[in-house]
Specification:
Blueprint: E1 6-11, E2 36-37, E3 48-54, E4 66-76, H1 81-93, E5 99-111, E6 114-127, H2 129-142, E7 151-157, H3 159-166
Antiparallel strand pairs: 1-3, 2-3, 4-6, 4-7, 5-6
Length: 167
């Protein structure tokens, strides 16, 4: 999320604005409180309010010119976390993956003509283009399912992260 600077300025209520003057660009945060303060226009009322404006300054963005491959599969939900961890660690220790993340999910799917629902482990693996085919082969040979989910997609990343994934 870009960093933003918060500015406080004074603003006249609509009833006191000059209708012939073009409106300023609206970038104020209406959720922030407005605080009445003494009128500085000489009309004798307390009609000026403070408004909080958001500056459009943004921190420099990291260059996203690197590429990594994300491979996703699922493992049986009845596996205990240490078993899933060991399965994941073999991919990293074997040099096929730079990072493996896992979490429990509930999958709803069609299998043998019926709608099924099961607790599973979703496993997301980061790898390089050079290693993705070997990784898919390892998943197919070691996977406990008859028809394992293997979804793969290319993702942009920073050059530093892509270099780390490449090894």
């Amino acid at each position: 999320m870009p960093r933003q600077r918060l500015h406080t300025v004074l603003r006249r209520p609509r009833s006191h604005r000059n209708p012939t003057r073009p409106r300023a660009h609206r970038r104020y945060r209406s959720a922030l409180p407005t605080i009445p303060c003494p009128n500085r226009t000489g009309h004798g009322s307390h009609s000026i309010q403070t408004m909080h404006l958001v500056d459009s300054w943004q921190a420099p963005r990291a260059r996203m010119t690197g590429t990594v491959w994300i491979v996703q599969t699922t493992l049986p939900g009845d596996w205990l976390e240490p078993h899933v961890g060991a399965w994941s660690a073999t991919l990293v220790e074997g040099g096929l993956a730079a990072c493996v993340q896992r979490n429990r999910v509930t999958s709803v799917y069609s299998w043998e003509g019926a709608t099924q629902s099961a607790e599973e482990w979703r496993v997301q693996i980061k790898t390089s283009e050079a290693k993705k085919d070997d990784l898919m082969g390892a998943i197919l040979s070691e996977h406990p399912y008859q028809t394992p989910q293997i979804a793969i997609w290319e993702a942009e990343s920073t050059d530093d992260y892509a270099g780390w994934v490449e090894g």
